[in-house]
Amino acid sequence: MSSKSQQISVGVTKTFPCSYLDTQMEQLLLLQEESIDINLFEQLLSLGFRRSGGTIYKPQCPHCNACLPIRIPSATFTPSRRQKRTLKNNRDLVWKIIGKQAEYHYTLYETYINQRHSDGPMYPASKEQYQHFIGSGWLDPVFIELWIADKLVGVAVTDILPHSLSAIYSFFAPEEHKRSLGSLLILLQCRLAKLMGKDFVYLGYQIDGSRKMNYKRDYTPYQILTRSGWLQTPNDK
């Protein structure tokens, strides 16, 4: 595969226990390039790849296809009634976008992982793990911050690409769980994409059988990548 004559190589990992479905084994296609053109990366997103740090990957599991690449067309997305309530209930928050990570981001991330995801693969949180997960030598994400007065309560790490946004990860203050800040951060990324004239917001993988990963179908209309290409669900709001 090439873009602007750039050649990339693809490897395959060994199988290992799936982080989301207890009965399944996971296997990944991996690209580990020191530098990659962002237009090519966006093409890879459209083929179902994601990035974690500087590594680009795609599930290629031998006996499972539960990971469904999902994206939101920004021009046609409209919040549901519940999502409108989330927006209304958080009108007291201030959100801002900054172009580089800050030390106080990690403090919130550490609290979030250790309190909300102590049963997951990123526990316990560490600065080294955070930097490896968020950072990349070839693409700098932006950070959407949520503030209540002088208290940081949420962060969405987002890649801005020529025609889309890619939601890398979001984390928030666990004590503010009643505000549905995870949902709010997705809604803000959808709003930002529309304001910037981007076509899509990539949300990663929808996994219907995983309680932690089956919420992305709430943002309609959405598109799922199938063997026949991207298929859009009807907007049934």
From TrEMBL:
This is Aspartate/glutamate leucyltransferase. It catalyses: N-terminal L-glutamyl-[protein] + L-leucyl-tRNA(Leu) = N-terminal L-leucyl-L-glutamyl-[protein] + tRNA(Leu) + H(+); N-terminal L-aspartyl-[protein] + L-leucyl-tRNA(Leu) = N-terminal L-leucyl-L-aspartyl-[protein] + tRNA(Leu) + H(+). Keywords: Acyltransferase, Cytoplasm, Transferase. Belongs to the R-transferase family. Bpt subfamily. Residues 17-85 form the N-end aminoacyl transferase N-terminal domain. The keyword Acyltransferase applies. HAMAP family: Bpt. Its EC number is 2.3.2.29. GO terms for cellular component: cytoplasm. Pfam families: ATE_C (PF04377), ATE_N (PF04376).
